[in-house]
Amino acid sequence: MNTAIKERLDAYVSSKGLRQTSQRNSVVEEIFTVDEHFTVDELLDRLKNKGVKSSRATVYRAIRLLVEAGLLVEIDLGDGNTTYDPNFIDSPTHNHLVCIDCGQVTEFADSHLEMLNDCLSRRMGFRPVKKSLRIEACCDKLRNLGSCPNLIKARINGKRMPNGKR
Amino acid sequence: MNTAIKERLDAYVSSKGLRQTSQRNSVVEEIFTVDEHFTVDELLDRLKNKGVKSSRATVYRAIRLLVEAGLLVEIDLGDGNTTYDPNFIDSPTHNHLVCIDCGQVTEFADSHLEMLNDCLSRRMGFRPVKKSLRIEACCDKLRNLGSCPNLIKARINGKRMPNGKR
DNA sequence: GTTATTGCAAATGATTTGCACAAGG
DNA sequence: CCTTGTGCAAATCATTTGCAATAAC
User: Model pTM?
Assistant: First the structure.
């Protein structure tokens, strides 16, 4: 796990007069070691599998703290779940493309996009502070080959149902 | 209210073997006459003020039907509420800029943005189907004049609290 | 008449919170 | 010690649903 993140969190924790606890540290460790987006239930499963004991309430509280500290960002992948993305520290302006066939999420950043957001906002009389862009798309693999390798994987994991149902 | 919308809804309703009801028609009428984004509670208030009698459950069911029919789009303005936008029929590719000072929402569309989304998606091996972009920004008025006219209005309506609390 | 629709109240699911006990500094 | 953190269970909030009565067609 990135030490810069640990330092920023420690700074935030002590500035607020909070304390170091083993439960919270385990949760933070898990989030920023795996370093991939997750839902609360997914994180809870991962913790359970690793034998980390931390209650649901504590996990919710740790997540809230990380969001307040600016280390974790809540994102919406359009699947009805609240998802958290720990990757904005390394890549502050990234966006998400969600494959509507297999659910695979691709992160991408583009300077032209940032430029355009900035210009458009200013033209309307605003200074952009934060943006969130999600593109939903279907993959060429499925279109051309009739099957998308990730689709199979996603179904096995119970993440995508044949029709699009949740 | 736009007759094209009524026609599309009627077509959808009869194709699914559903029925015309006064409650549903009132809800639809209200949504597409005012033609602005709304939360369920706001819509319910508007209906109550106009003396339209339609239960909360019926309003939820009507909204769901309109979303299924593609006439209404669920959007996320980042305030923790589910918002619905009836304006995608007239302006299929528009985006939202939310003023973080006053909460004012500005809709905008831009062809360069569409082009860029398309190119970026293709480069990653996808065909874009749908996108959602929200820019959060602060307004020059507040920055330069020390006050934003909409802020006052928003507070009166109880939409923005002094700090950013909900 | 048959079947969809409504309104109510109860159920659901995600998240938050009150409280008694445990633990950090 | 003193105060924050934890775990549990209960509370909350938005949304959905079961059901009996009502109304389309």
Answer: 0.89
